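G., the chain you wanted modeled:
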Amino acid sequence: MGLPEEWRELHRSRFSELPLDCGGPAAESNDPVLRDWSRKWTTPDQLRIERYIDRFDLRAKRILHIGIGNSGLARRFHDHAQEIVGTSLDQPELQLARQLNYPNYAVVRHNKYSGSTDEINGRFDFIVENNPTSACCCIRHLAELFHFLKATLANDGQIVTDRVGLAWIPERAHSRWSFDFEDLQAVASVAGLQTWKLSKNTYVLCRGAPLRPALGSRLRSSIRGLGRLGLPSNT
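Predicted structure as tokens:
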């Protein structure tokens, strides 16, 4: 897509150190730090995102997980979410996900910076995007990412990220791609989304105020948490 003037102004006013337009297609990074998380442990920041989502009643909810890694999110939610769609550019991650053979878990090879929605069907109640800028190359492709996020977000849906994942970049990346909450807020505003800081670490992007979990779903989440700790659910 062409780069609208509001993105150019955002570049001039806030991100002038970064390239406006790399002049090519969205890069598919071969950096091993960024790629193939299939056999690694889930990071604490990703677990915080999952704990936030776990507070909701997910039985009628669709989740889009951008960058599936070890498919820990699907392992956690496949039995109480309506559907999970995961994306990755890494073949081992995709292969591992398909081997799980969960009936409501579909995985797609997709480059989030392409802006394309052709491979992703429908809209999602939760979009998990913990490293939105880690592999980004220019403002044009950042705009493509946010175009994709908004196009696949349900009307009352939430895009969830974490302070640590948002700030993390590999060693060879430009340091300005390490975003804080105010950076995210500025970009989201240009994209037509609102940004909410729900805790020190959990950030959410929505079209309006984010929905809050009902009491019943929070209680069920607490019970599931006790189960994961190996404690009796009636303790």
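Residues 223 and 234 are 8 Å apart (CA to CA).

Shout if anything looks off.
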